[in-house]
Amino acid sequence: MFGSLKLSFTDNTKIAYIVRYKRNHAADAEEGGGHSDCIMPTGAPVGYFGGGLVAADGAVFGFSLFAAQRPHYVKLADARANRCVSTVLVMDVGKEKADRFRSAWLAMRSRTDGFTIMGNNCATHASRACFAAGVTRSAEIRGVDSPTNLYQQIIADGLVPWRSYSGYLGFMPRQSGYDELLIGFDVTMEPTEVPTDGGPRRH
User: Fold this and answer.
1) Which long-range contacts (CB under 8 A, 24 or more apart) does 46-49 make?
2) Extents of the domains making up the chain
3) Where are the beta strands (DSSP E) in 122-176?
4) CA atoms within 13 Å, Cβ hemisphere of 73
5) pTM above 0.90, yes or no
6) What's the mean pLDDT in 67-96?
């Protein structure tokens, strides 16, 4: 519809929050509430999973686990085939806050704390990283811990500039390394909607 575009994560100052099966900035997530994932300052995909995909205590996914168990979350062709539209909130937070975001995810990977559908799920863990990066006023999600509620909280708190993209999303490592959460990735989207901008302006 719009062709493809590259989402730039090359200067280690941007992070992103993703809601799966959310067709645009204003819509609620579909498919039982979607799923919360994030993009590290290097462009690496990251998320928290439980519910039978991994051990009962949950686990942080990097690219390889996504590719093996949720390929439509990280591979463009699979996203298109499965009609998995992701809405991606790219936030310009600066290097210091981006580093805090990265550190929060690395800490959650080092020591997981279980998984429950209500109150300790994918959105719960994404919220902790977002709070560490200063994009929300609280680590607690207002209302039910859901992907859409966290998305709306980031928008409502209005602490950082953002741009919202919706479409089919793909990731490709642009370098090798022992830790997939730290290496660089090219992030490509085939948009299905026109991007939306918001948040405070940079001076």
Assistant:
1) 46/105, 46/181, 47/18, 47/73, 47/122, 47/125, 47/126, 48/108, 48/115, 48/121, 48/122, 48/124, 48/125, 48/126, 49/115, 49/122
2) 5-193
3) 162-173
4) 25
5) yes
6) 97
